[in-house]
Amino acid sequence: MFERFTKDARSVVDGAVGHAEESRAGQVRPEHLLLALFDPAGGRAAFALSALGLPERREEVRWTLAEARRRAGLTQVEATALAGLGIDVSEVVARVEEVHGVGAMSGGRGAGGWRPGRRLSFSRGAKSVLERSLREALARHDRHIGDDHLLLALTVLPGVAAEALAEHGVTYEAVVRVLYGGGAKAG
To answer: What is the pLDDT of residue 179?
Structure first.
């Protein structure tokens, strides 16, 4: 599948690996793909993100992703649902961090986590983003998978990355409108 990726899309995937290594994550996750979308200067995804005002809020997005990582990757919606069951995720995180240190629930450093020199694998969520990007390209009759297809996949698949994007007005419909001028629905 990677042979179908454009130079910009490959740059995003390589950047995601770099972000995962930098954060000492055990795997490349969708959040790393999102962070890597901020890196390239000239791709279609960068154009869409810029048109939607996201580069100015990059640090807010990073903070949102870091907070989700502290909650063991739970979205805010999931944390709210647990609160409805009487489980205060903030309290659970505080207690775990009190005993094991800040970031103990982030999954980056323990058994099966980050190790220097170890080749990182892609999480199920990151693989889903890559697969969905292929579907996005095929649906648009594009011969190659671009960084714009990765962005579309991140907006439509449930999870922390989509939640962080939506929180800042970057939805599937908004990206489609900017890139293609239409309001096509996810397929």
So the answer is: 94
Alpha carbon 43 to chain centroid distance?
17
185, part of any domain = no
DSSP collapsed to 3 states, 133-151: HHHHHHHCCCCCECHHHHH
* Residue found under tokens 């990151």: 126
How many Cβ atoms from other residues are within 10 Å of residue 176's Cβ? Answer: 21
68 in a domain, yes or no?
yes
CA distance 34 to 69: 14
Mean pLDDT by 10 residues, the chain (187 residues): 88 94 90 90 88 86 83 71 76 72 58 59 96 96 96 96 92 95 57
Range of the domain at 148: 2-109+121-180
Q: Is the dihedral of CA 170, 176, 181, 187 positive or negative?
A: negative
> Domain for residue 115, yes or no?
no
Residue among 34, 54, 50 at smallest CA distance from 42: 50
- For the chain, the domain total comes to 1
